[in-house]
Design brief:
Number of strands: 12
Helix content: under 10%
Order of helices and strands: HEEEEEEEEEEEE
Strand content: over 45%
Structural class: mainly beta
CATH topology: Porin
Shape: elongated
């Protein structure tokens, strides 16, 4: 499933000149239920499927999230590199207005990694499940083809930390669910 999402994202981006759409770059914020909140950057592509509906592809790079992990060796702080990739639809309520509100939703693939060996887990790894998101946003048109945008999202997802330490096997689930937002600029064609 992960591979299919990546292939679809690449094919859609490669066909971008054929479709009307936009590309945006924004500052990002994400607050997960278990880890400390972080900031980062988001790159977003939108392709017009109709006058009101866009197909959105959004990748967010966040600094490392930090959470606690208990193994048989004790309690450890673990840094998690976290990259959500969203694929979904946005429905614009007033598509041609200077201020255009919308709602969005879709699937989220979480690309996560961590150096669990640093805390004494010899064969540690982390894996994430496919999640989903929902949100709302507003585009503020500045001049033709340029707009500021804001969106707020809530992502739902899980990851699992596993590893074999010196004193046995350890496993812990991570709840990656939480609110986030983006504030940036987009250009349309």
């Amino acid at each position: 499933m992960k591979r299919a999402l990546w292939v679809l994202a690449i094919l859609l981006c490669a066909s971008a000149p054929v479709w009307a759409g936009s590309v945006g770059l924004s500052a990002a914020y994400q607050d997960t239920d278990e880890a400390k909140d972080e900031t980062g950057v988001t790159l977003e592509f939108a392709f017009d499927l109709s006058r009101r509906v866009d197909l959105q592809i959004r990748g967010t790079y966040l600094k490392e999230l930090t959470t606690e992990f208990e193994s048989r060796l004790g309690t450890h702080e673990v840094d998690i590199r976290y990259f959500p990739l969203d694929l979904g639809l946005a429905v614009h309520f007033i598509p041609d207005a200077r201020v255009s509100p919308y709602v969005s939703g879709g699937l989220t693939h979480y690309s996560v990694s961590s150096d669990l060996e640093d805390i004494g887990l010899e064969s540690g790894h982390i894996e994430a499940e496919l999640g989903y998101y929902g949100g709302f946003g507003v585009d503020f048109t500045l001049v033709r083809h340029w707009a500021l945008y804001f969106n707020a999202l809530y992502r739902v997802g899980q990851a699992r930390l596993t590893g074999e330490g010196l004193q046995g096997f350890s496993q812990r689930g991570l709840d990656l669910s939480g609110a986030g937002g983006n504030l940036g600029v987009k250009v349309s064609w």
